[in-house]
């Protein structure tokens, strides 16, 4: 991560709490801000206006079904970039213009670091994203 730039705020849409804890530690170890998590698309929709974020990591299968692709599309329509994080890369590949990239599970620190910087390079992230007042966390 660039030391002169402000740290990106990363939210994680994932229904497995053990994976969330693992990725949270990786995000923070890389110098980014973990902005919280949600286990379902419905939970994300209900909380989106209370979360400060620059990008969202999105799993394919969530607590409310295979809703990750729909969540990524919904985020994109709101100017919020996402990256799929999944063991189902073939399914993620069916949505090539929905997310900025795909990270396969298990997640490596090197790949996570590389792909998170895509949020910084995305014109809709960080610079033009309106700030919210609180950081959500589950």
Keywords:
disordered C terminus; 138 residues; alpha/beta
Question: Any overview of this molecule?
Answer:
It is a single chain. The protein has 138 residues and is an alpha/beta fold. The chain has five helices and five strands; from the N terminus they run E-H-E-H-E-H-E-H-E-H. The protein has helices at residues 17-29, 41-47, 68-77, 89-92, 109-121, and strands spanning 9-13, 33-38, 55-58, 82-86, 102-104. A five-stranded parallel beta sheet has the order 2-1-3-4-5, with helices on both faces. Strand 4, helix 4 and strand 5 form a beta-alpha-beta unit. It is globular, with a radius of gyration of 13 Å. It starts with 8 loop residues before the first strand and ends in a 17-residue tail after the last helix. Mean pLDDT is 89; it is low at 125-138.
Q: Please, how many helices?
A: 5
Return Rg in Å.
Answer: 13 Å
Largest sheet: 5 strands, parallel
Distance between the termini: 25 Å
The assigned structural class equals alpha/beta
Q: Strand content of the residues, in percent?
A: 15-25%
List unreliable stretches of 5+ residues: 125-138
Order of helices and strands: EHEHEHEHEH
Q: What is the average per-residue confidence, as pLDDT, rounded to a whole number?
A: 89
Shape: globular
């Amino acid at each position: 991560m660039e030391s002169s730039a402000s740290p990106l705020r990363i939210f994680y849409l994932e229904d497995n709490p053990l994976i969330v804890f693992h990725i949270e530690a990786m995000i923070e170890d890389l110098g980014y801000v973990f902005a919280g998590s949600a286990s379902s698309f419905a939970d994300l929709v209900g909380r989106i206006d209370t979360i400060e974020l620059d990008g969202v990591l999105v799993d394919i299968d969530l607590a409310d079904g295979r809703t990750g692709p729909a969540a990524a599309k919904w985020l994109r329509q709101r100017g919020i970039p996402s990256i799929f994080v999944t063991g189902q890369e073939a399914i993620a590949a069916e949505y090539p213009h929905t997310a900025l990239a795909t990270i396969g599970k298990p997640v490596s620190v090197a790949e996570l670091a590389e792909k998170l910087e895509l949020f910084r390079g995305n014109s809709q992230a960080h610079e033009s994203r309106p700030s919210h007042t609180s950081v959500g966390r589950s």
